[in-house]
Amino acid sequence: MIQFIRLDHVLMCIPEGATAQAREFYRDVLGLAEIPGNHPSGAIWFQIADIQLHLREEAGSSYSKRHPAFEVANLDEAKQNLASKGLAIEYSSDIDGRERFFFRDPFENRIELLQFVD
User: For this UniProt entry, which residues form the secretion signal (predicted)?
Assistant: First the structure.
């Protein structure tokens, strides 16, 4: 049996030629710290709590419901912050014990933020 320890990183694809726009969105809009380095395939890496987000240019695009989900300390504050920056907030089905919402980055990647509740 495989004993998984934790989520290490998530890779999301962005359109070819969009690295500068991705850097601006993830660093300046979401406030993530970029991990410097010469990463494989020209990827840019960001730190989110104890995991990494990797973004890499790739040809083609597909509007999908696939997504990473990140737990946050205060979901209402996160929602207000993103909405104030013009991001559309999306909702989905309810899940017992957690509140959540979704938004999309400029490349149509779907991202979930959640907070566990009693």
Answer: none
Tokens for 22, please give them. 């991705």
Query: Can you identify the CATH homologous superfamily of domain 9-116?
Result: 2,3-Dihydroxybiphenyl 1,2-Dioxygenase, domain 1 (3.10.180.10)
Specify whether the CB–CB gap between 109 and 67 falls below 8 A: yes
Among 65, 39, 63, 64, CA closest to 53: 39
> Would you kindly state where each structural domain of the chain is located, as residue ranges?
9-116
Along the 118 residues of the chain, how does pLDDT read in single tens digits?
888 888 999 999 999 999 999 999 999 999 999 999 999 889 999 999 999 999 999 988 777 888 999 999 999 999 999 999 999 999 998 889 999 999 999 999 999 999 999 8
7 burial via Cβ count (<10 Å: 0-12, 13-18, 19+): middle
